[in-house]
Amino acid sequence: MTHRPHRFEIEPEEAGQRLDRVLAQRLPDMSRSRLKALIESGNLQGPAGGTITEPAHRVKPGEVFHLTVPAPERAVPEGQAIPLDVVYEDADIIVVDKPAGMVVHPAPGNPDKTLVNALIAHCGDSLSGIGGVKRPGIVHRIDKETSGLLIAAKNDAAHHALSAAFAAHDIERAYQCLVWGLPSPKAGTIATLIGRHPTHRQKMAVVTRNGKEAVTHYQVQQVFGLGAALVECRLETGRTHQIRVHMAHIGHPIIGDPVYGRATQARRAQLPDAAREAARAFPRQALHAAILGIHHPRTGVFISWRAPLPRDFVTLAAALGTK
After folding, report:
1. Would you name the residues annotated as active-site residues?
2. How confident is the model at residue 1, as a pLDDT?
3. Among 75, 115, 258, 273, which one has the highest count of C-beta atoms within 10 angstroms of its own C-beta?
């Protein structure tokens, strides 16, 4: 099954332009790279009825082209009706507040019940196809046990624009976290290289070579004596586990982090008994993606969203404040 062919008649002002550029202007929901692939795959009929396979073909006034866009392939994985906390949605993007415990992408050990499964079911036919497949365009991830905001594209052009924005760091991202101890100074910038741990390959680490630049700006928001603090971290870059690695690197790992978050006995002793027990029992890293801001891929208008702290995070913060 295919969509009805799109008919294009070249206007005088378009004369001499590349064919793929003209089509991209006429079909703003599709990226130029997607249109180029369609042309090269033989989906475009030229003025004389022959197939045009050259995206760089220079068009002439009055020429008529017919582009057939195959229906998006069925998504793999399958959509699943899983409740979502949708913060914002339009024809191009969807922003959700992901709960802790939900995996973003299917993977070995987590083949279904992921955010992608939920988005496929929720968005349905509003997913026009990313690269020809009816699926959401995920351009960033947050860890399974991290809660908070995540954005996905619903069409090819939005996916292309968001991917470029993330690559250029042209986005706003702020996280809230509860850490062991009190960072000093209370505000600062952590700039390092982050790469795979040299011996524990499943972990990331601050490295001196063969890593990627990682920059985190932090600000202490609330102090719980000398034993713990609520910290806001704003990302200038977006490396795997960046905040978790950086806070551990400066000696203030995130409470509950099973990989990077072990606190010393002396630091744990700086909390009252009830607070220390609450921190010890917290079942995940106390990290929440609280703020996300982008330039909308269609309008260019800057939009930002804020997700409130989840209940378990608020409960832990209250316990840390007990005397």
Report:
1. 143
2. 40
3. 115
In whole angstroms, give the CA distance from residue 258 to residue 249: 15
> Which residues are within 8 A (CB) of 69 and not within 5 positions of it... i.e. 6 or more apart?
2, 3, 6, 30, 38, 43
CATH 3.20.20.140 fits 86-167, yes or no: no
**Spatial separation of the C-alpha atoms in residues 317 and 114, rounded to whole Å:** 28
The pLDDT score that the predictor gives to residue 251 is 93
- With vertex at residue 30, the alpha carbon angle to CA 65 and CA 48, rounded to the nearest 5 degrees, is 10
Phi, psi dihedrals of residue 212, rounded to the nearest 5°: -110, 145
pLDDT band at 51 (very low <50, low <70, confident <90, very high): confident
Q: What's the burial of 245, exposed, middle or buried (CB within 10 Å: 0-12/13-18/19+)?
A: buried
Tokens found for residue 227: 């034993």
Closest CA to 211 of 203, 223, 220: 203
Residues with Cβ within 8 Å of residue 252, at least 6 apart in sequence: 179, 180, 181, 182, 183, 229, 231
Amino acid letter, 59? V
Phi, psi of 231 (to 5 degrees): -125, 140
In this chain, the answer to whether the domains covering 86-167 and 172-307 adopt an identical fold is yes
Q: Where are the alpha helices (DSSP H) in 44-199?
A: 115-123, 156-167
CATH number for the segment(s) 6-67: 3.10.290.10
Pairs from 195-201 (Cβ < 8 Å, separation ≥ 24)? none
pLDDT of 79 reads 84
User: Beta 287-295 vs 228-235: how paired, if at all?
Assistant: unpaired
Rounded CA-CA distance 20/268 in Å is 61
Least confident of 38-42, 155-159, 277-281: 38-42
Dihedrals phi, psi of 111, to nearest 5 degrees: -75, -20
Domain boundaries, the chain: 6-67, 86-167, 172-307
Can you state the angle between helices 273-281 and 311-320, rounded to 10 degrees?
Answer: 150
The span from the CA of 100 to the CA of 313, in Å, is 10
